[in-house]
Amino acid sequence: MRHLSLDPLVEQVGYGRFQRRLLWVCGLGWAADAMEVMLVSFALPAMAAEWSLSAAQKGLLATALFVGMLAGALIWGRLSDLIGRKLGFMATIGIDSLFGLLSAFSPNFAVFLVLRMLTGFGVGGTLPVDYAVFAEFLPAKDRGKRLVLLESFWAFGTLAAAGLAWLVVPRLGWRALFVVSAIPGVLLFAVRSYVPESPRYLAVSGQQDEAIQVLRNVARINGKELDESAVALAEQLAQEPQKSSVKDLFSRDLRRTTLLLWSIWFFISIGYYGIFTWIPSWLRAKGFALPAVYPYSFFMALAQLPGYFSAAYLVEKIGRRLPLGLYLAGSGLGALAFSLAVSPAGIVGAAIILSFFALGAWGALYAYTPEAYPTIIRTTGIGSASGMTRIAGVIAPFVGALLSGQNLVTALLVFGVAYGLGALSAFLLPHETWGSALEDE
């Protein structure tokens, strides 16, 4: 059965001014989301002091956001395959910014938990939708590198959250931190209205003329023109709207990929959120005074950037799977080193190594996942994989609270093993997507 393939037209459009602008629009959204996710981690010592929180309440505080993110990832991911990317692209950033801002005015612990869950509903949807939107406007050349660069904005958001916590919390308190952190998302909500619907989504939903018009506009912004013979061929190959269902994730061609990706997303998230939610508190447990926690957390966040950039280089040199597996293994070793370190220099050095590999692994994973699924099921696939992250995000803070209360080494060993299992799953992925075209159906 013949169908419309936009690959020749997307390649003609190339990578230019439009995609660079889109990278910033999506990337700043990611940075805003990272700030929302990491804020509780950085504000937790001050919040715990104000509300006299128990260890169980601290775990619940860190978990609340992920409950909402789980619902957001599954609902917005599926919805974006059914009715288009544009609605989710705008609504998710608006939701997480609005409720993120309202969190600052919580009168008590219970209200704060509810507002963080609602914030998470937006954040959970932003991640799969943004990645699909950006990937579907990219030509094959250097696509992996650019997807990792989008993921690197997470590091900038974490860095901003750590820097703001360092500057704001000791002077103005944790509530001011939540107010300032919500501002970027509020501004982005208006900007996103100017981003067009994904042409690949339009094509598989039977709106071929609209898809080609979007690509004409993008080509014009990039200073190019589409080859009319290629346009005519694409129009001749146009077919009826294509439909998908969740069960397509378990088709013969996708079953193994889906299950392994779910495993990777779950284990990397157990390790990442289990460790990074508690890093400021663990630094205090290792002897650092509360004011000193914030600058050390800032430098840990800074180490994420070379992790991303090295992964961006490697995914275009040796493929997606090998860097993913190696960086996950490096994360596990970094967790072990952090658990055993005793001197201030050793503790900070191990934390920086852990941060480098952990975020590089995320970059490689986000390069692979959108390429593993066709357009008709792409955001469903990304959203379901992201859902594993949210399940792990619910579990990991409680595991960290439970185990660190007994023995810090044991807690970090458990999270290091999770990274190791993620590495094994990465090496078992059946397909290398490096250099391949994005499938539409």
From TrEMBL:
Domain Major facilitator superfamily (MFS) profile: 22-434
Cellular compartments annotated: Membrane
Gene3D superfamilies from the UniProt entry: MFS general substrate transporter like domains
Keyword set, alphabetical order: Membrane, Transmembrane, Transmembrane helix, Transport
Pfam families reported in the protein's UniProt record: MFS_1 (PF07690)
Main subcellular location: membrane
GO MF terms, alphabetically ordered: transmembrane transporter activity
Top-rank taxon: Bacteria
Membrane-crossing residue ranges in chain numbering: 21-44, 56-75, 87-105, 111-135, 147-168, 174-195, 259-281, 293-315, 322-341, 347-368, 380-403, 409-429
Record PROSITE patterns: MFS
GO cellular component terms, A-Z: membrane
Membrane topology value: Multi-pass membrane protein
Family classification: Belongs to the major facilitator superfamily. Sugar transporter (TC 2.A.1.1) family.
Protein name, as recorded: Major facilitator superfamily MFS_1
Organism whose genome encodes this protein: Gracilinema caldarium (strain ATCC 51460 / DSM 7334 / H1) (Treponema caldarium)
